[in-house]
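Class, study these two lines:
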Amino acid sequence: MAWVREAGASESPMHYMAKAFAAACLARRGASVEAEVGSFKGADLLADGKLPVEVEALQGSGVRALRRLRATAEKYGRGSEVLIAVPNPQLMLILGEVCELSKILAEEGYGARFATFDVGELELVGLPEVLRRLGA
């Protein structure tokens, strides 16, 4: 993936790999993908020129995970869409809390959606589908 640059000093290796995987998932479904979109509030990725995608590896930030996820949603403001991708192990550890946060953000008018990775199928899986697959 030539369009995903080498990990920067502020990115953990997990963040960089998750960002590359998210980009591959988006490209596989036919989306055009831009990386390091400084003009779009610093989004990790931009899908189809309009959907910001933030990858939150939740490692090394020194900030509590839910506070970090909420700050990412708030960065885009109420009424703005953003897809927040969280690697599977991290999401599974705080799944119940992320479900609650998702509801709160929706009630407050934020357009944040959460997703994780299906490594076998090379796709991003939204929170409702994650819950369905888990039988929750």
About this structure: Strands lie at 33-37, 43-47, 51-55, 81-85, 111-118, 123-126. Residues 1-5 have pLDDT under 50 and may be disordered. The radius of gyration is 14 Å.
